[in-house]
Write a structure and sequence with these properties.
Heat Shock Protein 90; five-stranded mixed sheet; rod-shaped; 73% helix; two-stranded antiparallel sheet; 3 domains; alpha+beta; 9% strand; 490 residues; 7 strands
Length: 490
Amino acid sequence: MTFTERLYRRSLVAAITAGFALLIVLGLAVAWLVVRTQESSQTVTHTYQVEVTLSQIRVLVERAEAARRGFLLEPRDGFRRVFEETVAQIPPLLDDMAGMVADNPPQVERVRQLTSLTNEHLALLRESIAEREAEGLRPEDIGRVGAEDIALIVGIRDVARAMSQAESDLLRERTDSQQAFVATSYAFMTGAFVLLLLVALGTIWAARQNVRELRQSRDKLRFLNDDLESVVQTRTADLQRANDEIQRFAYIVSHDLRSPLVNVMGFTSELDAATKQLAEMLDKVEAEAPETVSEDARLAVREDLPEAIGFIRSSTEKMDRLINAILRLSREGRRVITPERIDMNAMVRGIVDSLQHRLTEVGAEVKVEPLPDLVSDRVAIEQIFSNLIENAVKYLKPGRPGVIKVRGKRQNDRVVFEIEDNGRGIDPKDHDRVFDLFRRSGSQDQPGEGIGLAHVRALAYRLGGMIGCDSALDQGATFRLSMTAKLHET
């Protein structure tokens, strides 16, 4: 991909991301405007409620005045009852009014004045009704009584008119504000819709471009895969031929090495027998004529020759073990792999049971966690786990109770096993070396030729697996084996 293409892709992604971010901002702004519009609507409704309550108070005051006048003209219970019912409704409305305008100091003062004038006016009304009931007020005095509280009525009307005007002004302001919020909300919604449309179109266009590029890449990849398959088949065939050649070479070389080795071992046995005869003869000569036997001859027969024969024999035996290992590896490479379902828990328990005597001797234990099953070659898997567990037992730390843990888990189409010990550990620089043929790490105080782990790695490769080591000196070692969960016959 060229620099221009990368810049174009990044710019496109940045533009789409910015579009979505701006769309989110617009959405939040629209939500805020909707909330503000609702608040403005509530204030408008509140203003209407104040107006209605004020109108109700004015109507009730006038109704109380009318009932009082009716009672003064003709003192009947009906007029008195209407008066009392009307007067009883005014104080709650005044309280409601005070609560409605509590956030408006000028209106609070007007409500206080209105309440004072209304209470004073109602007191005069009650006083006149009481005088009429006591017949202390004659009909010709009714005009005078009405003139006494006219000032209060005028005051009530003036205060009510002032409050109504103030609420009308608030209503006009709040209505204008509400309309402005609604208009702004519509503008923002329109902008959000346009932006959403642009972002959607841009996203669709970018998706179509990506789909087109993916289709082209898929076609190229299919072509490359087809070509790669032929290359892999060719390389695999070449590797298989080379592997067969190596195995045949190892088999032939091993047999060719064994022939002279057998001769050397045979001649060593003859030399050993001859040395024994010379020793018997030397003993006889020393008994009959000791002065005829030199010190060099005595040392040669009794020390030098047996020591040399011992060196030759130990070397030939080691050579024989190495040749057998090469032959075993060669035969393992030619063996046909036969996949079958393996109960790993049962297999590992069987391996541990076979090592129980050795575990008791060294004071160690093997902890086996539930293991996943797999489909693979039983013989190869058993050899791998036997080698790894036996090595863990062999290289435990003296004086430290040995603990060996075997666990495993499934990872997609593979299975990962771990064999962990708390033994002497392996130097990090030798983590790869220990898997090489005839290579060992650490002190060589245990029998072995450095073949086991090389054999394990070869078997793991044949089964489509990998093996690695994680360890530090004196901190134990963990061998991690990754295997194909289901091996197919080849």
